[in-house]
Write a structure and sequence with these properties.
- The complex is a heterodimer.
- In chain A, about 80% of the residues lie in helices and about 0% in strands.
- By secondary structure, chain A is an all-alpha fold.
- In chain A, helix 13 runs antiparallel to helix 16 and helix 15 packs antiparallel against helix 16.
- Chain A starts with a helix and ends with a helix.
- In chain A, about 35% of the residues are buried.
- In chain B, the strands form four sheets. A six-stranded mixed beta sheet of chain B has the order 6-7-8-3-9-10, sandwiched between helices. Chain B has a five-stranded antiparallel beta sheet with strand order 13-12-11-14-20. Chain B has a five-stranded antiparallel beta sheet with strand order 15-19-16-17-18.
- In chain B, a hairpin with a 2-residue loop joins strand 12 and strand 13.
- The longest helix of chain B is centred in the middle third of the chain and has 18 residues.
- Classes of the chains: A mainly alpha, B alpha+beta.
- At the A-B interface, helix 12 and helix 13 of A face helix 2 and helix 3 of B.
Amino acid sequence: MIEARALAALEPELATDEPRWIRRIIIAVAIAFVGLFVLVPLAAVFAEALRGGIAAYGRAITDPMALSAIKLTFLAAGIAVPLNLVFGVAASWAIARFRFPGRSVLITLIDLPLAVSPVIAGMVFVLLFGQQGLLGPWLSGHGVKVIFALPGIVLATTFVTFPFIARELIPLMEAQGAEEEEAAIVLGATGWQTFVRVTLPKIKWGLLYGLVLCTARAMGEFGAVSVVSGHIRGRTNTLPLHVEILYNEYEYQAAFAVASLLVLLALASLVARRVIARRVEAT
Amino acid sequence: MTIEIRGLTKQFGTFAALDHVSLDVPSGKLVALLGPSGSGKTTLLRILAGLERPDAGTARIDGLDLASQSARQRNVGLVFQHYALFRHLSVYENIAFALRVRKRSRAEVDARVRELLALIQLESFEHRLPSQLSGGQRQRVALARALAAQPRVLLLDEPFGALDAQVRAELRGWLRRLHDEIHLTTVFVTHDQDEAFEVADRVVVMNHGRVEQVGAPADVFEQPANDFVMRFLGHVNVLDAELSDGHARIHGVTLQIGGDHHGDSHGRVYIRPHDVELARAPADGALAARVVRVTPLSGGLKVDLSVPAIGSRLRADLDWERGTALGLRDGDDVFLSLRRARVFAHSEPEPVVTAVA
């Protein structure tokens, strides 16, 4: 990779031997596309959010319903992301280190949430845990409410976000190999010592990258959560759902104000990704 | 610490990595496992370290069956071909690793690490990361790391395989001197015969998961047990021949090979390049040959010859004095005679012949 890049740098004339006007057209098309589909909508969100002034913006995001949505969003992500952290590390460890029956099935299944429409993911949980579902009556008989409550939102979020950490770690761990772990064990380290002292430092930047992706998605998830949440204001509304409700009630300025919070979260995660991606490449 | 290996067998799918290998490594000796890749030498090492489990057979260190201990409990030092240093830890912390996981006191760790840094002559590099070291330095750190917890035996898996020729030669000498100082029972895996001969007290030649021959370097080289060992240890001229009592017929030429080869058979004659003698003048029994190419080597000359009488090419190695005395050039006509030709009975591990043509 590095060699290829160095070679390309040595022969710039060969690599970009196009007439200048063609280069300009290609660059212009790319910029126009990004502008039209990314920058303009982004600017529109903030413009609309601030249309009523700073005070209105402040009121919209400190509204009790908005605050409750923020709290719920962070709570759901705060449970789903650690769950996926454990699952992601365990799954990538198993896939990268061992050859076992069902390994290729596991690799395929990890990608399932990316292939399935989130709405369907939500409906699966309703089918399982809803009042007419398989486990719903038994659970509600024991006083556990899953659908239209926090557990359902956490389940849906976890399902939708579980590929992100494993997909980051599997190629990284396969590329790094197991020699350092073998060395650690021969040197007398226990399994846990090997994990904490050797494996974790090796994968930490990849893991962090996966965590950022996972968190960003967990906070922004709409479809699956929408199906299981029931949209109970102040109780089961997450940030994206709250935006939808405000929008449907023609509260455009408030809707965009809350939406701008999600946009800021996304931008922060983009910056974090850039920074971390550089460290991942360095390891 | 002696190592006793009895009937060790390991199968990977249909591939027999080890096939009933038995071997003794005497206490304090340095033994080289020498063989081509796929001969099972690394598998043997990994079983001793506890990273692979044998299908059958036992390995004992000082009488204690290794199967009763996990890799973690064995306390063997293992050095990997590609170092396997902890990339996120400094040289100091790499060496300290085995002591840290054993929860030794800080003072004890520091004393031992300093001692080892001095031993590998990298005192001023303690804060560097492995990526900031040269290959030879990394391998020395890997060795120090393996020695830190006073292992019972030291296992080296092609330790110099990834280094360039000059660094290899230096490290070989260094490893031998180190061994003479600390006298730790050591098993050393290599596919390089020069390395094995220079460093080891004993050489174990392996092929296809089996031990072909065990002996001191000179014995293995001088008395190869079979054709594989003969071919593997240095270059050899191989000629197809009809063998009958004491003679080998190659095309029209009959070579006297003496010895006690009995009966008629089809077989091969093995001749080391240094056993091919060249002269300008014809002599009794000498064959006419033409010099194809003369190549200078470190210790003399390599001469490629075409020998029309046997329809084959041969290689002869001459020392400098003999080479310059002959003043050979490409295309010269010469006469060759053989000091020594060997015949191995088919897959019998017994050298049969010493003879003159």
